[in-house]
Amino acid sequence: WTMALTLVATAQATNANSYATHVEATAYFDGRANATTFTAATTATAETWLVMATTRLEREGYIGTPTSSTQRLQWPRSGVADVTGNGLDYDSSVVPRLMKEAEYELALAIGNDTALLEDTGLEGFVNVKVGPLDVTPRVGRRGGDLPAQVLRLLRGLRDVSLGQFHVVRG
Fold this sequence. Notes:
two-stranded antiparallel ribbon, 4 strands
């Protein structure tokens, strides 16, 4: 017995599991030739991909702070400058368009390769050789890595300083 997934894309909701709705994602992909995997999928399948994409995006660190202490997801946030160049901050009551587009693109990538977010098991190796078997992992592919298109969309939203050390010379 399995329970059907219920996609909740309400900003600041305590039970939100997606930044965007299936309708929004379908409209984004409307007319794109390379998006048929998503647009041809059942609503249930596409919504599962959207939730998977959001779950992965939630593992990133972002600039600013969540606007509500009770919201389940990291967005919306306050104190985030709009990277589109208008000199204003993003509206702290809604999820920015770029964040939603990153979710759509990652959902499409998951639909095209359902193993995209899984660890390969070879992340720590440049090459693995056992007897006559010689395996070189796919260059540039590490389990859980975000696709380049998603990283481009998140530029200016992610806090790239997280996990880095700052050295001060005295």
